[in-house]
Amino acid sequence: MKTARAKIRAGRQADVEQPRPAGDQHRPTGGRRPAAEALAPIVRRLLGDPPPVAVRCWDGSTIDGPSDTAATLVVRSPNAFRHFLYAPGELGLGRAYVSGELDLEGDVFEILRAPERWGEKRPHRRIGFDPEGLAEMWRAARQLGAIGPPLPPPPEEARLRGRRHSRRRDAAAVSSHYDVGNDFYRLLLGPTMTYSCAYWRTADTTLDEAQTAKYELVSRKLGLQPGMRLLDVGCGWGGMVLHAARQHGVRAVGVTVSAEQHRLAVQRVDEAGLTGQVEIRLQDYRDITDGPFDAISSIGMFEHVGHKRMSEYLSDLHALLRPEGRLLNHAISRPAVTKRPALAPNSFMGRYVFPDSELLEVGSVVTAMHSTGLEVRDLESLREHYARTLRAWLANLEGRWHEAQRLASPARTRIWRLYLAAAALGFEQDRLSVHQVLAVRPGPGGTSGLPPTRTWLAEPTESPVRKVNQ
Fold it and tell me: What's 288-336 look like in SS3?
């Protein structure tokens, strides 16, 4: 079955890593129907008619995309379709992609922007959930020889057990994402080892400079002064506490539940000669009992807390602050209120990137802060800054692709490529945002301890910071 709108090419059996020359169009030997011909109805339902990108199958047959497309979906074997058959939608496609049975060639942003080409002609996204789509799927499966028992999910897929957001389950969720290997994260993030939105002050700012500028921005908002005591919740590899100790003379405590992060952060503190000034703990924030602190930073931690524990989290931090102490919460957010703040458990992000994570609308965060006795004094969106940060990380990954695969496995590297690109587009297109919310614990009589004007937030004319110790 060939269509004029989504042209199908049948090619001789070929290694999909070596595309055949244009015009070499023959049916595969053995009399089997070309794979592209069997997949065409499914592709049209998923991607539209005609599809916005080209599709190439394991037998060399293809479905043409637009003449100007710079991207191709590669279906490497019938197993790709079998994954989709038993988990129709994003999860099945994710399993096929992570296992290497489905691949992306060319510009990954071109593939992810494919929906923009649909315009008003939206494809049928409910394939596999309506009778017509289900019948088409099984018909294609028989034609492709993809009938068989469900394939096991890739080992990289997170399947957490226990009560959601319990200490044990939260530690397992964090470990699944962060304990990939410190060498891999160093390749991805650069020398600062900072895994959160950077602050790009100029067009020619480097990633390392932008991450250092972010730490300085947080430090200014917290009003850090020598001798103050700072708590950094979810401290990662220690970037914030190192900066605050070196540049502002504070005594800092950083906590993480990632064993890999803890090990390297302790090492970095020792190498910086700050062992007596900075303490890194392998500890859950719910177990911190040695307050009060003058200031608390929570950078990239809030996403792991969850909607149900949001007020508990903020109450715990409120209790750890001294009167007139400041809290800076830096977190990814959704642009609108939603009944389901959690990443869907059957989504690519929910299974392979951030299991159990939840993105909240910033207004609900402000309300929760006020309800726990904190007073919000400043709110800033860094949405465009995060898009640029993600693109910088992706450039690091793709620039050292083979080394990244050696450090973290080919499957894990593919996950990160897709995740970084999809997230960058999410921030660029205002489907995701990130906010810094500054709050204070009021003192006696409602005092805030803040200066009367916003000059304390003004950027310095020259950066007062040195480069982070590499």
Answer: CCCCCEEEEEEECCHHHCCCCCHHHHHHHHHHHEEEEEEEEEEEEEECC
CA angle 83, 110, 33 (to 5 degrees): 45
Its pTM stands at 0.85
> By the 8 A CB rule, do 342 and 307 touch?
yes
Q: Which strands make up the sheet holding 54-57, listed edge to edge?
A: 8-9, 62-63, 54-57, 71-75, 102-106
Is residue 297 included in any domain, yes or no? yes
pLDDT digits (tens, 9 = 90+) for 341-367: 556 777 888 788 877 778 899 999 999
Measuring CA to CA, which residue among 257, 263, 254 is closest to residue 172?
257
Which candidate, 284, 214, 298, 294, places its Cα nearest to that of 256? 284
Distances from the Cα of 441 to the Cα of 223, 298, 329, angstroms: 14, 15, 13
Distances 43 to 38, 57, 131 between C-alpha atoms, Å: 10, 12, 17
User: Is 232 a member of any domain?
Assistant: yes
**134 and 205: one domain?**
no
Same domain, 400 and 292: yes
Structural domain for 132, as ranges? 8-144
Residues 201 and 106 in one domain: no
Clarify whether residues 325 and 363 are in a common domain. Answer: yes
C-alpha to C-alpha distance for 6 and 277, rounded to whole angstroms: 65
Residue-wise pLDDT tens digits, 233-261: 999 999 999 999 999 999 999 999 988 89
